[in-house]
Amino acid sequence: MNMQPLSLGDRTSLAEKILATKQQVAESVTEEFFLRHPDWLTRYGDRGRKLGIEDAIYHQQYLACAIEAGAVAPFADYARWTVNMLGARNIAAHFVVENLEQVGQVMQPLLSPGEYKLVSGYIRAACDACVETTPQSCPDTGGQAQTEMALARELYLRAVIKGERRAATYVALDALRKVTDVVDLYVDLFQATQYEVGRLWQENRITVAEEHMATAITQYVMAQVYSRFEERDCDRGRVVITGIEGELHQVGANMVADVIEARGWNVRFLGTNLPHAGVLQAMEEHRADTVGISATTLLSIPKAVRLVEGIRHKFQSACPRIILGGRAFFSTPTLAQELKADGPAMDLRSALALI
């Protein structure tokens, strides 16, 4: 959903303006919030004030990125996610609404009337999302899994959360022998488990350490599965898969790289958090005819835009196909159109179809 007809350049300018004052806005918002709720200072102390400033900065960063993307939906998703996450930690939704409204009020004198009207529309949508009762859903993983895969997924989830790397590996390799297409293993076991692990952390049912451990084990297990792929003559095309500079999540991109290589493409997987210059160099050296760019959070959108612009500038008329994937692009479908890229790839299967 677009909130305005502004060009990408105009939206980028407004986003940069918001980010330039985020610290002073966050400090003002937090000071006012603690004046309204002095009991919070008693409950949380100076650490609470510090976290309040951090939260207000996050609100503005996500707001700026949503505006640059030209879609209100991801900011509403962020607000909904924030309410669910904090609600599991006994912080009521109305406090999030109040905080978002304060951000808009403090920002108002720093913006032109037109800019404030746009910003207030985004904030209103986010506040509305905070009081919705429908939980945020994950992308479809390909339909109802068969009984064997459902059991494998249950066993695998238990193993990764408990830190049992050997058990997780055994479950995955056993499932690999039973599937007719390796894509089913990646989607219905690895991808589905990662979504469930994220949900459990959001609901405060596992710790951040357990969430990180589960992800690390899945990356290890994927490497064991990958080592058992049959070698192919890679002649279907030359592909570079990469994350965004500053992006710390790479499991999804790793999955895409694995399955398309299994289908016969010559793949260079660069991981993530790679400077743009390194991505461009790798594309040139690999003579890539396709590049897949993964971004998992809305905060990665601005750098994704810069990377696409850099690719087009460097390769000009010889520019390879550009495919955008990852959760950051799910609710910003018009951005891919503006950037003249393919996508968004909603999940592993759609990424494969696009490539």
Describe the largest sheet.
5 strands, parallel
Query: Counting H and I runs of at least 4 residues, what is the number of helices?
Result: 15
Q: In terms of per-residue confidence, which ranges show pLDDT below 50 for 5 or more consecutive residues? A: 133-145
What gap, in angstroms, lies between the N and C termini?
26 Å
Strand order of the largest sheet: 2-1-3-4-5
Count every beta strand, where a strand is a DSSP E run of 2 or more residues: 5
Q: How many structural domains in the coordinates?
A: 3
- CATH class of the largest domain reads Mainly Alpha
CATH architecture descriptor text of the largest domain: Orthogonal Bundle
Helicity range: 55-70%
Give the strand content: 5-15%
Taking all Cα atoms into account, the compactness measure Rg is: 22 Å
Structural class: alpha/beta
Mean pLDDT: 89
By CATH, the superfamily of the largest domain comes out as Phycocyanins
Quaternary: single chain
What overall form do the CA principal axes indicate?
globular
Order of helices and strands: HHHHHHHHHHEHEHEHEHEH
Q: What name is given to the CATH topology of the largest domain?
A: Globin-like
